[in-house]
Amino acid sequence: MIDSHRIDFFESLGWSIHLPFGLTKFMVLELIAAGLILAIFIPIAKRAQTGEPPRGWWWNTFESLLTFVRERVAKPAIGEHDADTFVPLLWTVFLFVLFCNLLGMIPFMGSPTASFAVTGVMAVVAFVAIHGSAIAKQGFVHYAKAHYPHIDAPFGLGPIIATMIVGIEVFGHFIKAFVLAVRLFANLFAGHLVLAFILTFIVMAKHANVFLIGTISLGSVLMVTALSLLEIFVAFLQAFIFTYLMALFLGAALHPQH
Predict the structure, then answer these.
(1) In the chain, what are the domain boundaries?
(2) Which of 17, 75, 120, 251 is the most exposed, fewest CB within 10 Å of its CB?
(3) What is the tens place of the pLDDT at every residue in 81-110?
(4) Is 80 exposed, middle or buried (0-12, 13-18, 19+ CB in 10 A)?
């Protein structure tokens, strides 16, 4: 659920311990996600540097995620020539979103990506990375000129139409970043909201007879279990979609001629 106030992580577990520095529950969860990524992938990277082929389900599982992002996301969206330059960024984004999503499946935890503040900041980071990279590659003047089309129109309307198109293009860049934030937030928040709503059926039936409350409780638990499995799929899917859209926008900014 969304933490709109500074809610202590341990208080959410019923403990009265206050975290320093004004930390919130989602800040702690983001640190946990980052720590898990480092703990898993640093050893894998060190073993890969030796040239040793992947062995075991652990190594193969996590390396296959990285290979998928590189081969099926970065290269098709950005191009063979520039893809490897931005693969580390896309890996980081994909893994961070994925781990934040999956933390919501653990009781008493939560998904930081179910907060618009978190997804909004990620969208800002994506926006800066996309257009900053394009400006660094092409130069600011060339990048700006790419937004200004040459239009032959009667009565001197060409420059006016071109200026309107520039405004639409610039506005579209902000809309794309906003869509990145809203899509991820809405899907994660809606999923958690549905699970919480189904569990409230048990509370609502607490004064019913034993047979009815037993039936409702069993049905609610089974439904939540099934939807939780779907939520795991959604966690991977939304991490992929966020990363893929970011790669698409990055490729469009780096290669405006296409």
Answers:
(1) 11-254
(2) 17
(3) 888 899 999 999 999 999 999 988 887 788
(4) exposed
